[in-house]
Write a structure and sequence with these properties.
With about 450 residues, this protein is α/β, with parallel strands linked by helices. It is built from 17 helices and 19 strands. It is elongated, with a radius of gyration of 26 Å. The two termini are about 45 Å apart.
């Protein structure tokens, strides 16, 4: 139980208290229907909206939920769990219903993006992995989409695998950033797994391994003639650009075109301006400039404001770790059990009780104008955002293609109010709590406990 596939599927990717609670639920026959909802309590300081992501991985996990023989044997040997409970785990499958916002949907604080309705032990057991999957991809997609807003029309590529917090994180970051509008990734496994386009150039080590820089350029170009993008900042950036100009006619005679050059260090804007002049003066007006190196939405916005002649960007560490907001204040909480609404009242962590729905209104131009968080079934103006995706433990429809999800995310961006399309600002989107939901909360607060 050590390879990536097992990590993705095993129910042992959980917290111990899920199993100890299940033992107690089993002992006391607590198996009535429960409703849990995943939501974000507050938005990070630099975020005025988030983008839902990770639903497809959650559905796959729930559909395949099963304890294998090795896992049951390990649980049985821990001494904390009785044999009859271990036998019960061996028969446990997810049999519940799931409602969710479509991946790529914009959402705000307190709005559930996923609701699980299932027998209490099933809904409880999956909490840790559901949070793990939704939290991470939502966090990365929400960071990536800010880069898309900061650099409209530019080629954006995920470069973050090597500094992601583990292999699964790097792979899912490639998916989340592509969903948000990136053109592709350098992470190779993302192509066979998700169909995401791959981009790549060379490392400084390739240049250094050759005695002469221009020889490195030529050898690389002749080995990969269909995609010649040369890294030119290993030694002297502008001198290397001149070597590219010198090499271009020799490669052209062999039918090879230098597609682009890449900058990875220093003052990217200043270097790009100098390199652009060198390339243009040398007749390489169609050779693009691609930049990377600790970039994020703020540095992208700054480079564009400076009118740096950069055609595309590789965004890595700061996106794949969401460095300015490396976690979301999110939760997966019980909102109803045995047909009775439940409300957590902890200081600073109180929840809105009951099974809920989000209604969203638009103006005549199709721009989002406000959401209402209310109780399911009570109606409301606008469209509903939580829709059924699983029934009785099985998905209702075939999975949406990643391209369709990506198109939905782009449409959501276009429907954002203009003030929210800026990466800085103070404007807040209106989310109203319905009067019926407030009354339910007040009623539960007044009930003796």
């Amino acid at each position: 139980m050590t390879d990536l596939r097992d990590i993705e599927s095993t129910p042992l990717v959980t917290d111990l208290y899920q199993l100890t609670m299940l033992q107690a639920y089993f002992d006391h026959d607590m198996r009535d229907t429960a409703v849990f909802e995943f939501f974000v309590r507050t938005l990070p300081a630099q975020r005025r909206f988030l983008v839902a992501a990770g639903l497809e991985q959650v559905i796959g996990f729930l559909e395949d939920l099963e304890f294998g023989a090795q896992e049951l044997d390990w649980i049985g040997r821990q001494g904390s769990f009785r044999p009859e409970f271990v036998d019960y785990l061996g028969k446990l499958r997810f049999t519940g219903d799931v409602h969710a916002m479509a991946e790529g949907t914009v959402f705000f604080a307190d709005e559930p993006i996923l609701r699980v309705t299932a027998p209490l032990p099933e809904a409880q057991l999956v909490e840790s992995r559901v949070i793990n999957l939704l939290h991470f991809q939502t966090m990365i997609a929400s960071k990536a989409i800010r880069c898309v807003l900061a650099a409209p029309g530019k080629l954006l590529v995920d470069f973050g695998l090597r500094r992601a917090h583990g292999a699964e994180a790097g792979l899912l970051a490639a998916r989340a950033s592509y969903l948000a509008g990136f053109a592709g990734t350098a992470t190779v496994l993302a192509a066979p797994r998700f169909g995401i386009p791959l981009f790549g150039t060379m490392a400084h080590s390739f240049i250094e391994a050759n005695e002469v820089e221009i020889d490195a350029f030529e050898r690389f170009a002749r080995s990969l003639p269909e995609n010649v993008v040369l890294l030119i900042d290993t030694y002297d950036t502008e001198a290397a650009a001149a070597k590219v100009v010198q090499l271009a006619p020799r490669l052209a005679a062999a039918g090879i075109t230098i597609k682009g050059v890449r900058l990875d260090s220093g003052d990217l804007g200043a270097h790009a301006r100098k390199v652009r002049r060198i390339l243009d003066d040398g007749g390489l007006r169609h050779t693009t400039i691609f930049a990377s190196g600790n970039l994020d939405e703020f540095s992208l916005a700054r480079l564009l404001a400076e009118e740096a002649p950069i055609d595309g960007f590789g965004v890595g560490t700061r996106m794949d770790t969401s460095s300015d907001a490396p976690f979301l204040d999110c939760a997966y909480k019980l909102q109803e059990y045995a047909s009775r609404p439940r409300r957590k009242r902890s200081e600073g962590k109180a929840t809105w009780p009951g099974t809920k729905q989000v209604h969203r209104r638009f103006d005549g131009e199709g721009i989002m104008r406000g959401d209402v968080l209310g109780l399911e079934g009570q109606g409301g103006e606008g469209i509903t955002l939580l829709e059924p995706v699983m029934r009785a433990g099985r998905r209702i429809a075939p999975p949406a293609t990643l391209e369709a999800v990506r198109e939905h995310a782009a449409a959501e961006l276009a429907r954002l109010p203009p003030e929210l399309q800026k990466i800085t600002g103070s404007g807040q989107y209106p989310v109203t709590i319905s009067s019926a939901l407030r009354e339910l909360a007040y009623m539960l607060d007044a009930r003796p406990i």
